[in-house]
Amino acid sequence: MQLPATRRAPDRAAALAQYRRRAAFYDQELVLFEPIRTEAIESLDLRPGDTVLDVGCGTGLSFEPLHSLVGDEGRIVGIEQCPEMMAQARDRVREGHWDNVELVCAPAATARVAGLADAALFHFTHDVLRESASIGNMLAHLKRGARVVASGLQWAPPWVWPANAFVLLAAMYSVTSLEGLGHPWDKLARRLTDVQVHSALMGSVYIARGVYQPDLH
Question: What's the pTM value of the predicted model, to 2 decimals?
Answer without folding.
Answer: 0.90
